């Protein structure tokens, strides 16, 4: 699965570097970062010339004429990531775990935008090659979990999240390190677009449960999986390489689809799978996330908490639009629409979200 990286982290800055670290008004009220993010790379080009392929993930540096619209899905990912960072990555947090996947570049982007001062004495722990690159390219200090076995907060993506915040992870083969960093963190936060917000695992992510195995044991583990009710379990094959996917840890990955009755009780399935000798880690994250943030198509963010609370942050409460104060007098159609559906609306202040 490809992990796109925002253009701001990969290509020369598209705006003049400044020392300003605050978002300033941009496209349609969107913030434009002209500070730390803009400073990531030297030599701003005199004339903008960015390959089309790089433009689709980040428009924060582009002028109105130059910026294409962010796709709805990318905008949803960014919305979830930025909102979660604003609420959970605080100045007192000094050891921060960075997950993997296509939503995580927006996490790093938002952390970088907190400014050089905020990030000066922080260390960032990657969950794999991709996040290591993001940390290094973001000029953030790189550490590892063997140096920092206690992490303040880890923010990560997911392939699917169920009603109890259990997750399927490992679509990018990173779930071993991700689980270590999730476990090491005081607070583990999941960020994703609306498509990952599910009832029962396996409803939307059909590839199966990712299972990392020691290479020499894969055939035996496959046999076990076929025997316990996953007849289609198979070795994940590489796309542009002959042979299997090899994880960052040198292991193979098996994808094992299970019927709904198994997926409805992921903790039981997880414990069963972990018992197979040769299994290194299973991409079922049960009872680990403190909260999950889902960016929605309409610019709102759905937040689900481990304790069962739900919030719906309407688009005025997200980082994309002006602060709620300036709009307090207006009637909010979402307030009406969501009455009685179990969602609080903009219910909690950021400082309550450690
Ligand atoms: O191994 C990969 C990770 O578990 C990712 O967090 C997960 O696959 C979600 O990735 P994406 O956000 O690209 O769908």
TrEMBL record:
One of its GO terms (biological process) is D-ribose metabolic process. Residues 1-58, 317-354 are annotated as: Disordered. It is an enzyme of class 5 (isomerase). The keyword Magnesium does not apply. It holds the Pfam family Rib_5-P_isom_A. CDD domains: RPI_A. Keywords: Isomerase. GO terms for cellular component: cytoplasm. Residues 1-17 have a biased composition (Low complexity). Residues 49-58 have a biased composition (Basic and acidic residues). It catalyses: aldehydo-D-ribose 5-phosphate = D-ribulose 5-phosphate. InterPro entries: NagB/RpiA_transferase-like (IPR037171), Ribose5P_isomerase_type_A (IPR004788). Pathway: Carbohydrate degradation; pentose phosphate pathway; D-ribose 5-phosphate from D-ribulose 5-phosphate (non-oxidative stage): step 1/1. Coiled coil: none annotated. Its EC number is 5.3.1.6. One of its GO terms (molecular function) is ribose-5-phosphate isomerase activity. NCBIfam families: PRK00702.1, rpiA. Belongs to the ribose 5-phosphate isomerase family. PANTHER family: RIBOSE-5-PHOSPHATE ISOMERASE. This is Ribose-5-phosphate isomerase.
